[in-house]
Amino acid sequence: MRVAIIGAGMAGLACAERLRAGGHAVTAWDKGRGPGGRMATRRIDTPTGAVAFDHGAQYFTARDPDYIARVADWERHGIVARWPAAGAHAWVGTPAMNAPIRAMADAGDVRFGVRIEALVRDGDRWGVRGAGVSEDGYDAVVIAVPAEQVAALVGAHAPAFAAQAEAVRAQPCWTAMLAFDAPLMGVPDVLRDRGAVDWAARNSAKPGRTGPEAWVVHATPDWSAAHLEEDAATVLPQLMAAFAAAAGIALPAPIVATAHRWRYARSGTLGCDALWNGALGIGLGGDWLTGPRVEAAWLSGRRLAEAMPAG
């Protein structure tokens, strides 16, 4: 088959990987500027060196045997490592959280910085349309984007799928990225569930990281929802104050301070691995189907590929 995949995060790339192994031709598009999605890493230059922030997913775990085997292969290639500070079973990408995504993308035909805005159906073939993109002749199409973005793509073709996606909603998250010219003394590498702070981590302490003291601070879903439509300049000082309270210190002046709003940070759960309509040749994958974890996204993409003809 010739397959188009919309969304080149963990689910989309896991699906692509499995389909390519079965001999299919796969092209994936993603609106992001580069590999990552919710496993994104942002790099910022400072007077004391470049600093990196894993400002999405902080770590992942592996429980399913297929995924355990995949993680073991990533470890052999030096693109993941254990991170004991987050727990005995925590893993991170190295040298950045997006390393597995980057490796998976590099292995196939993936086009970043492209927003696919519509699907067209011509007989039993699919076409994709977006800014500067008009390609036809696909036997199947896979949608691997957040649930909130599914209906706009599939509603005209698979209304039942659109309704299922619309029933699932993600929780938002405001994230602060902070760097300092010296370590924050007396503060553990990980802080959890402290007031408005859901999670804060010393990013620079993760395996394979270099550069100055760097922190990623995630606000709780409730706090993020309450401040969702505020701008970053308004949210940042509030989140810094919450972090200072959580850490129990007065923060020094940061050398980097910025905030990012994740509208779809923590997915809801539909309750299945993947959705496939063989009559139409259209499938849905993503963590919103089975649970808000990196492993869930990988399994969803793989199970979707296995449900497709000769997957």
Could you characterize the architecture of this molecule?
The protein has helices at 10-21, 65-76, 99-106, 151-154, 159-166, 221-226, 232-247, 287-290, 294-307; strands at 2-6, 25-30, 42-44, 51-53, 80-82, 91-93, 109-112, 116-122, 125-130, 133-138, 140-143, 171-180, 190-194, 197-202, 213-219, 256-266, 275-277, 282-284. The strands form five sheets. A six-stranded mixed β-sheet has the order 7-2-1-11-18-17, with helices on one face. It has a five-stranded antiparallel β-sheet with strand order 13-14-15-12-16. The protein has two domains: 2-40 and 98-168 and 268-307, FAD/NAD(P)-binding domain (3-Layer(bba) Sandwich), CATH 3.50.50.60; 171-266, Polyamine Oxidase, Chain A, domain 2. Helix content is 27%, strand content 31%. The termini are close together. α1 (10-21) links the parallel β1 and β2. The model has no long low-confidence stretch (mean pLDDT 95).
Features:
alpha+beta, FAD/NAD(P)-binding domain, Polyamine Oxidase, Chain A, domain 2, 2 domains, five-stranded antiparallel beta sheet, 9 helices, 18 strands, 31% strand, globular
